[in-house]
Amino acid sequence: MATSLVAMANQKRGLFKQKGRNSHLPPFTPHRPTAHRPTAPPPPQTMALQPSATTDIAKAFSAFYYQAFDSNRNQLLSLYRDLSTLSWEGEQFIGANNIVAKLVGLPFQRVVHKVATVDAQPANPSAPTLIVLVTGQLLIDDETNPQHFSETFQLVQEGSNFWIYNSIFRLNYG
C-alpha cells in the first residue's frame, strides 16, 4: 500500500500536534504548478523602436534639447507634459509648467552645453520609449572652467515626435 507524500506529511504533523508543537499550522498541501501558465501576448513589432534607430533619435533629440536650453529655455515647454518629472540636483519637479519654470529660473544668464556622449536604449518592448544618457560639459555665463554633467531622459513617442516623461540632471564633481 503506497502512502502519498501529502498523507505522510500530515501524519507526521499529527504526531507533532499530539506533542503540542505546530498545532497552529494547517495541514501540509504541496504546491502544484500548473502545466501551462498564461503569458501576455508578444508585443506588436511596430510598437517597439528598432535598436538601430535609438542612437540616431537620441542624438537628434539631445542636439535639439541643448540648443533650445542654451538659447531660450522657454522653448522646452513643448517637450514636457503634465505627467513629466524632472529631478534637478536631487530636487523634483512635476508637470511641464513647473519644470520649465525651474529651468528658466536657474541663476545664470548664459549657458553652453558641450555634449561628449549620447547613449540610448529602448526602454519598453511594448511601447516606443527610449532611455537616453547624455554626458558632457557646460559653461555658465563668463566662466572659463567647464563643469561636467550627466543627464538621463526617458522619452515617449507621440506620433513622429518624442516628449520627456522623466529627466534626471546632475553635475559631476570630483
From TrEMBL:
<feature type="domain" description="NTF2">
    <location>
        <begin position="57"/>
        <end position="171"/>
    </location>
</feature>
<protein>
    <recommendedName>
        <fullName>Nuclear transport factor 2</fullName>
    </recommendedName>
</protein>
<dbReference type="InterPro" id="IPR018222">
    <property type="entry name" value="Nuclear_transport_factor_2_euk"/>
</dbReference>
<feature type="region of interest" description="Disordered">
    <location>
        <begin position="16"/>
        <end position="50"/>
    </location>
</feature>
<dbReference type="Pfam" id="PF02136">
    <property type="entry name" value="NTF2"/>
</dbReference>
<dbReference type="GO" id="GO:0006606">
    <property type="term" value="P:protein import into nucleus"/>
</dbReference>
<dbReference type="InterPro" id="IPR002075">
    <property type="entry name" value="NTF2_dom"/>
</dbReference>
<dbReference type="GO" id="GO:0005635">
    <property type="term" value="C:nuclear envelope"/>
</dbReference>
<dbReference type="GO" id="GO:0005737">
    <property type="term" value="C:cytoplasm"/>
</dbReference>
<keyword id="KW-0963">Cytoplasm</keyword>
<dbReference type="InterPro" id="IPR045875">
    <property type="entry name" value="NTF2"/>
</dbReference>
<dbReference type="InterPro" id="IPR032710">
    <property type="entry name" value="NTF2-like_dom_sf"/>
</dbReference>
